[in-house]
Amino acid sequence: MHKGTTTEDSVVQDLLHFLDTNNDGTVSFIELMRGLEHMGQRYHEVPDLSTPQSFIQSFAKLRLAAQQQTVEAIIERTEPTVKAVSTSGTVTTKSTPDNSAEFIASAVRRTNAASGPLRLSDEQHGALRNIFASVDVNGDGSVGVDEIAKIMNRDVKDTTVTELMKYLDRDGNGSVSFVEMVRGLEVFAQHYGVLPSLDDVSSFATSVQEAMGKECQAEEVAEVERRAKEEEEARKAKEAEAADAERKVEEARKEKEEEEERNAKEEEEVAEPHAPTTSSHLTMELQQLVKQLYDIIDCDHDDNVTADDITTAAHVKNNHHSVNEFMDVADTNKDGAISFTDMLKGLEQVEETFYKMPEVTSPEQFVGTLDVIFPGGTPAPAHASVEADVRPFPFHFRCKWRGDTCETFSLYPTGAKHT
């Protein structure tokens, strides 16, 4: 059996990796057809299918041409010191920095990660084989989680190891084959945007940790920002709640003050009733007394007092002469009832005409003085006996009552002594 060269083995391995999409080590007819379709889309040409050897060789040429085009495009855009790319794929530079090769490889990795699923080159396959072989000490073609942890110089339960195993152990059996490692690193590069360094085991472990560390830092920053935002929202909500509580306290305080003010005003009105504001020239004190009298007479509080209301309150018979006389003076609209204002005006009219203000301390006293001012009617009862100075006549008038009858009355000059 012909034993191929290292480059031929790499090409075959890469071709198998390209076609074996389920990583079972074999290529089905459906996988072959899909792989050829993918090659046509990627390389714009299908490999020669006349013989297996021509198929492998034409695939190698297509792959090499695609790699050269990628390197040329990257050098042209990003590395001014690179002057040309030879047909063999080597790079010639003038004053090229020592890390120019790593720069180009890194640029290739970034371009592949951005443009679609990354595929390792022949050189990367070879470098990865060396790393895999150095770890696979028993040569069984697979490495376990213990060996991966040894590469990373970490414990098997370390987060870095468990996260890396998610990418490498494609079938989840706890061990990683070379094909799984290739495919896993391609997915790793797709996720993190960078392929780990394949120079040696140490640089491989360092670059994996750096890639994961940057993502962890980004996640930590995002978490810190999220918590800060939540704390800010909680602070604003607390401030709004405190402001609302303060507003309610202030409203309750104002409401209480208004209620106390209303209660105090009502108590003042009950303790010291006063007549409503009128245009009367009577003193406020006298108006208050008249108001008290009016309220006693107006027992139904409809602000309408009739002659019968007055006689009833004074305990005299209805159709009392002096009451009718007063009603005739006070009832200006002649509707048979007087308001408080009408009563004030009637009293003013009586005072202006007779120079005497009727007594307003009680209904009985009020009717008694009306009997004196308007003589000729049925006299008031004995308990309402009063003395009145009736002017313009220059004398006093005194009536002595017995029951409902005025037995005697006497006249005497104003200012004269009398018994």
Task: Give structural attributes.
3-stranded antiparallel sheet; disordered C terminus; 419 residues; mainly alpha; two-stranded antiparallel sheet
Describe this structure in words.
This protein is mainly alpha-helical and 419 residues long. Helices cover 59% and strands 8% of the residues. The chain has 14 helices and seven strands. The strands form three sheets. A three-stranded antiparallel β-sheet has the order 5-6-7, covered by helices on one side. Helix 3 packs across helix 4, helix 7 (159-168) packs across helix 8 and helix 12 crosses helix 13. The protein is rod-shaped, with a radius of gyration of 60 Å.
Draw up the topology in text:
Layout: H1 6-19, H2 29-43, H3 52-78, E1 82-85, E2 91-93, H4 100-115, H5 122-135, E3 142-144, H6 145-152, H7 159-168, E4 175-177, H8 178-192, H9 201-271, H10 284-297, H11 307-314, H12 321-330, H13 340-354, H14 363-373, E5 387-388, E6 395-402, E7 405-413
Antiparallel strand pairs: 1-2, 3-4, 5-6, 6-7
Helix pairs in contact: 3-4, 6-7, 7-8, 11-14, 12-13, 12-14
